[in-house]
Amino acid sequence: MSFIEEIVMKSYLDAGHRFLLFGDERPAELMPGVEYFDYREVVEAPFAIGPGAYHNNGVFSDLFRLILIRDLGVTWVDMDAYCLRAFDFPADQPLFATELSDDQVGNGVLYLPPSSPTLHEAIPYFYMDNPIPPFLPPEDRQALMARRDRGERFGIERLKWAVSGPYLLSYLLIKNDEMRHALPRAAFYGGMRSRRRPFSRLGVPLARIEAEGAYSVHFYGRTRRFVRDENGGLPPEGSYLRLLCARHGIDPNRAPVV
Q1: Residues 191/210, Cβ–Cβ less than 8 Å
Q2: Are 127 and 47 in contact, with CB atoms under 8 Å apart?
Q3: Which candidate among 3, 52, 132, 242 keeps its CA 20 to 30 Å from the CA of 178?
Q4: DSSP string of 110-152?
Q5: Which residues pair with 110 in a beta bridge?
Q6: pLDDT tens across 97-142, in order?
Q7: pLDDT at 195
Q8: Pseudo-torsion of CA 21, 164, 186, 222, nearest 10°?
Q9: Is residue 246 within a helix (H) or strand (E), and if so which, with residue range?
């Protein structure tokens, strides 16, 4: 676990939230205040996951957050979703924001109340044999039907990236008239896009990153790669990530990105 994940965890603690961390091995040094749980106590993966299984791990993460929300009533946040200010929303308010367009949401910050039809309709997709989601393009659906008709068996983990996450979630939210609860993109996914390296470059205006109306700043996974490959695993002096280390008392030298 690197200083980036430490920043994220500490940001929620400093905002007054609990932070529950799930994994398959307890960290040797766990930040005070963080509560650790083995993910297998919540749900076993219905398909193979593990080191090197990047796609399957991502699909399981899409399922895992839904199970957590359903069974524990918690709000899910990705480990690259920095908390800018307290999530002071009503307890029963659905929590998600549009990301790439007004009809597509991200699932990096997510809460759905127990009464949400979307929450209960999404989970079975992960256990279906030969799922053919109705929101896929016609050519993709036809290709999947052909695979099924040839006798091939496949699960949702064999489908394209994001089908099990934002695409499925967005489709069901629209279908069930729950998309009207979506917060604007600025709430969780605003600011500059991570491809432009705003978090590790010098001299980026703070207002360009911490957008007006934002509750969270999303780093996205590529930020870790940029820091590792271009900055020796440490945040450059004068960068946004270095500012956050100072803001939350994190020593990046103790946990560089590797």
Answers
A1: yes
A2: no
A3: 132
A4: EB--TT-HHHHHHGGGGG-SS---TTS-HHHHHHHHHHHHTT-
A5: 76
A6: 999 899 999 999 999 999 999 999 999 999 999 999 999 999 999 9
A7: 85
A8: 70
A9: helix 240-248
Pairwise CA distance, residues 211 & 85, whole Å: 12
Rounded-to-integer distance, Cα 93 and Cα 149, Å = 43
Packing angle between helix 222-230 and helix 3-14, nearest 10 degrees?
130
Contacts of 86 (CB under 8 A, 6+ apart): 15, 16, 17
Contact indicator for 201, 239 with CB cutoff of 8 Å:
yes
Q: What is the pTM assigned to this prediction?
A: 0.95
Q: Where are the domains of the chain?
A: 3-113+182-254
User: Can you give the pLDDT at residue 36?
Assistant: 98
Of 179, 136, 53, residue with least CA distance to 61: 53
Per-residue pLDDT of 43-53, as tens digits, reads 999 999 999 99
Structure tokens at 215: 């509750």
The whole-number pLDDT of residue 196 equals: 86
Q: What is the pLDDT of residue 255?
A: 97
Q: Give the residue ranges of the chain where pLDDT is below 70.
A: none
Tell me the residue length of the chain.
258
Q: Which residue has the tokens 């597509």?
A: 104
